[in-house]
Amino acid sequence: MAAGRLPRPGTQVGPCEGDCEHVDCLETMAMAMGLCSYCQKPIGFDVRFYRSPDAPLPACNHAACVEDAVEASRAQA
Question: Which terminal CB of the chain, N or C, has fewer other CB atoms within 10 Å?
């Protein structure tokens, strides 16, 4: 599974800076505001994250949080 990054608003491939009705912009903003289930902080922009393909939006987790959890699990085994 590859980690993704959400582009910042106003950048060439990022969502609009202001309010808009673009589906892509709304989905990107929802994902960025979604909380990581590990640390309970927003996913944010320009931060590596993982999203399960079958999870409903905005279900994402910071890549660092997931990777730390995997390493901790391996250390306990």
Answer: C
